[in-house]
Amino acid sequence: MAKTKTRTPRAERREARKAVAEAKRADKQARKLAKTLSLEAREKFQAKTAGAHDGIRAARDEVRVRPARAKRMARKAAAQLERASIVATSSGDARRRALAETDAKKRAKTIKQRNAQAKQANKMVKHIALHTVVTSVTTPTDKEHVEHRVKQARQRASKVV
């Protein structure tokens, strides 16, 4: 029987690797989310998630030596990323929050959904701003409106006569 490199069973290392992979996915989604935020919000978000990035790296290094610790560190980092995304996007609906707390696989997905929500909100703001500018330019002032009515009244009067 061949001797393994460490005393921990292969299944524990496999679970730890899966937890680290999920944390990396959450990290990737968090980085995408950071790109969509305003400069001030991005700085706050990155400050909150810096520890999680370090935690993921440390968990990756611990997988072979102490897989249970690596798994715990990876899940903690993913949860930290998710909590930061909730604060950054102001969208913490209870159902998704509960799902993410119970299932580590959902964390990256919920961060991705929040990213989409943030993008949609930014699109709506830009659309409303553009619509407001166009409306203010094309809508006649009261003076122009009165002049137009006077002109129409003159044209009607000239047709009658």
Largest sheet: none
Helix fraction bin: over 70%
Number of helices: 6
**How many individual domains?**
1
Q: How would you classify the helix and strand content by structural class? A: mainly alpha
Poorly predicted regions:
none
Rough outline: rod-shaped
Number of strands: 0
Strand content: under 5%
Rg is 28 Å
What is the average of the pLDDT values? Answer: 84
Order of helices and strands: HHHHHH
Short description:
By secondary structure, the protein is mainly α. The protein is built from 6 helices and no strands.
Please name the defining characteristics of this protein.
single chain; 161 residues; mainly alpha; 6 helices; rod-shaped; Membrane protein involved in colicin uptake
What does the model show?
By secondary structure, the protein is mostly helical. It has one domain. It is built from six helices and no strands. Helix 1 packs parallel to helix 3, helix 3 runs parallel beside helix 5 and helix 4 packs antiparallel against helix 5. The longest helix has 34 residues. It is rod-shaped, with a radius of gyration of 28 Å. The N and C termini lie far apart (115 Å). This is Membrane protein involved in colicin uptake.
List the helices and strands and how they pair.
Layout: H1 10-36, H2 39-62, H3 67-89, H4 94-102, H5 105-138, H6 142-160
Biased composition (Basic and acidic residues): 9-29, 141-150
Protein name: Membrane protein involved in colicin uptake
Biased composition (Basic residues): 151-161
